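Standup notes, structure subgroup. Blocker cleared on the pyridoxal-5'-phosphate input:
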Amino acid sequence: MLRERVNMIDIKRELADIGGEIKEAIAASLEDTIFIKGPRVKEFEKNAALFLGVKHAIGVANGTDALHLALRAIGVREGDEVITTAFTFFATAEACAYIGAKPVFADIDIDSMNINPALIEKLITKKTKAILPVHIFGCPADMTSIMNIAEKHKLLVLEDCAQSFGALTDGIKTGAFGTAGAISFYPTKNLGAYGDAGMVVTNDDTAAELCRKYSEHGCSERYYHEMIGYNSRLDDIQAAVLNVKLRHIDRFNTERRRKAAHYIKNLGDAVLCQRTPGNAYHVYHQFTVRVKNREEVIKALSDANAASSVFYPVPCHLQNAMKYLGYKKGDLPLTEMLSEQVLSLPINPYITDGEINEISNIVKSVAESA
Ligand SMILES: Cc1ncc(COP(=O)(O)O)c(C=O)c1O
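Run returned:
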């Protein structure tokens, strides 16, 4: 039994670590009183672009808007098909639907839990416009293969980097491979704001300009509207928080990786853990295992005072809202199996080795490996 409740994220311990810097940054934003398009937004856009190795970064209101506006800005239109994964948060597919584009789901690679590039090509039709990989739980999708397919078939690529800030493959950060990347700074993310926030990143000048216009009611000059846009902006107070956290992100990601390695060592072959491809740097937004008796494990953890979460119990293609696409159970067997088996255990930069040991012992004593 854990003495203190172990949650998935631990903002209290985070505040004990960097709360002083955060409060100072928020106070400075309050002093300036420029909450929309304030100086901290510009600073964060500049710092994030530098960190990720991209030319442009555009702050928006949340990760869902980042996906939606990026799809529009790179040129995805009504009637286009977008090949993506159904093993993701619903917003990935939802953003396609906002535009009237059709999400077409490829099954996953069971080990990495990411879209399987070997299944993409046979889904390409005359209507296919883009590929939308998700770096699930912070593990980079196979961007080398995906970019090769995109180049061969002249397709756009939007990376869903909602869970992968700072993740790398062969030294390149997620978000820097595709035509654009969409990031969420939802508070639970590995780089989380203290409210909703998001960002589009791209090396494409035209897409960057369009995306900024879309996020500002279709104007580049205030009150002169060149097209119908949206109101989707990152605010100065969230940017203040994010600037502070960006200074610590390498340490946070290193800690997450260390904790994940500790879990993996403890768990041995008691459960199957998400597997990281050899050339990838996983940032463990979530630490996710596969078990056969998920409900039992959840209960045992809860009884011992530890949280756990199921991301995601229903894959996108089987969601009621996506019924119109005509998918049925059995269409994506590995995605569906994963949705029944996955369990994410608490991971954050502050969980202690002792807590990991206790959680691992409970999982080992109850779990039936998938
Ligand atoms: C994979 C994925 N895509 C998109 C989103 C949407 O981000 P937001 O909640 O900031 O709109 C999230 C997070 O919630 C996510 O995990």
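Discussed briefly. The mean pLDDT is 97.
Next: hand off to the docking folks.
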